[in-house]
């Protein structure tokens, strides 16, 4: 009530002062011009323009009057997100994230850093859905059905689901120091079931992998005693009946930490010669896709499943299998 009286008194005082000022001084408007938007009940246009401005100053528009409500909403949203201060001073990383006030119902994106150190976070929802590593493995294999090892691309939503399960499985790694157990856990033959390496667009066309040539199994043979790894990618040529062949990539590795090895490309070849003649023109492109050189982090390994991440950001999921013919 007192605020309303103060506003009414200020409006009238301001209006009378502007009427007096306007009568004594030129207002600088062109002849016949009117102050815009200030006609109210036949009152003087110029004076009521100032009255309107004064009234807006004392009693701001709806959006401003509800600023407190918006601050309350922001504070509540911050509480839902686990943020102590809406001003951005008490975030775990010390900085206000760009998406701090995104919808609290949005599921965490797999693969995003969990904290300022860049550590990978695990989807809390997934943690609640799966209690054991066996349950996670079963869910992961279900997601991998029909993706053809991911080589020709995977829809973004499904890719996020796969990577979320991978991270969850990695968090339950039964072999936290895998390079100390290479002979027991890694030595032998493995088959690729999924990777984020893709052959898309013009690359797929150049390599004839749309209709002319199909991809067979991707095999990997690890010889711990020799510190060697051999990757074998099988091909089938539809235009030539019974023509099958393979790209063989030989590499050496060196242990550099409890979880990481450095890999060096040693040799590569395509057999038989008929298949080599098909790939001859684009051999460098083919080798660039499957070249393993760099480092590899073993993030999960048990008796039958292995997961790794390389220096290019790729993920590899392999399952143990019988010895392949090289």
Automatic annotation (TrEMBL):
<feature type="compositionally biased region" description="Low complexity">
    <location>
        <begin position="99"/>
        <end position="110"/>
    </location>
</feature>
<dbReference type="InterPro" id="IPR039633">
    <property type="entry name" value="PAP"/>
</dbReference>
<feature type="region of interest" description="Disordered">
    <location>
        <begin position="79"/>
        <end position="122"/>
    </location>
</feature>
<dbReference type="GO" id="GO:0009536">
    <property type="term" value="C:plastid"/>
</dbReference>
<feature type="domain" description="Plastid lipid-associated protein/fibrillin conserved">
    <location>
        <begin position="136"/>
        <end position="318"/>
    </location>
</feature>
<keyword id="KW-0809">Transit peptide</keyword>
<dbReference type="Pfam" id="PF04755">
    <property type="entry name" value="PAP_fibrillin"/>
</dbReference>
<keyword id="KW-0934">Plastid</keyword>
<dbReference type="InterPro" id="IPR006843">
    <property type="entry name" value="PAP/fibrillin_dom"/>
</dbReference>
<protein>
    <submittedName>
        <fullName>Fibrillin protein 5 homolog isoform X1</fullName>
    </submittedName>
</protein>
């Amino acid at each position: 009530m007192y605020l309303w009286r103060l506003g009414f008194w200020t409006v009238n005082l301001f209006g009378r002062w502007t009427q007096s000022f306007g009568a004594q001084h030129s207002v600088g408007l062109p002849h016949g011009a009117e102050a815009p938007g200030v006609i109210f009940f036949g009152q003087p246009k110029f004076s009521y323009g100032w009255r309107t401005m004064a009234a807006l100053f004392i009693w701001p528009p709806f959006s401003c009057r509800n600023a407190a409500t918006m601050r309350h909403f922001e504070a509540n949203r911050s509480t839902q997100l686990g943020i102590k201060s809406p001003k951005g001073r008490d975030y775990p990383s010390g900085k206000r994230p760009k998406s701090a006030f995104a919808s609290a119902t949005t599921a965490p994106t797999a693969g995003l850093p969990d904290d300022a150190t860049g550590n990978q976070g695990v989807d809390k929802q997934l943690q609640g859905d799966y209690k054991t590593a066996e349950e996670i493995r079963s869910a992961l294999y279900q997601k991998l059905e029909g993706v053809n090892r991911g080589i020709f691309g995977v829809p973004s939503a499904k890719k996020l689901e796969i990577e979320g399960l991978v991270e969850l499985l990695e968090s339950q790694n039964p072999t936290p120091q895998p390079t100390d157990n290479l002979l027991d856990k890694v030595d032998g033959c493995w088959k690729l079931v999924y990777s984020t390496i893709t052959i898309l667009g013009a690359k797929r066309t150049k390599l004839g992998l749309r209709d002319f040539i199909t991809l067979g199994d991707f095999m990997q043979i690890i010889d711990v005693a020799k510190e060697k790894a051999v990757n074998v990618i099988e091909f089938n040529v539809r235009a030539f009946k019974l023509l099958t062949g393979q790209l063989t990539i030989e590499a050496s590795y060196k242990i550099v930490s409890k979880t990481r090895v450095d890999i060096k490309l040693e040799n590569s070849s395509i057999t038989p010669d008929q298949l080599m003649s098909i790939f001859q023109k684009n051999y460098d492109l083919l080798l660039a896709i499957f070249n393993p050189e760099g480092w590899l982090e073993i993030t999960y390994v048990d008796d039958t499943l292995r997961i790794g991440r390389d220096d290019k950001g790729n993920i590899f999921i392999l399952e143990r299998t019988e010895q392949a013919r090289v």
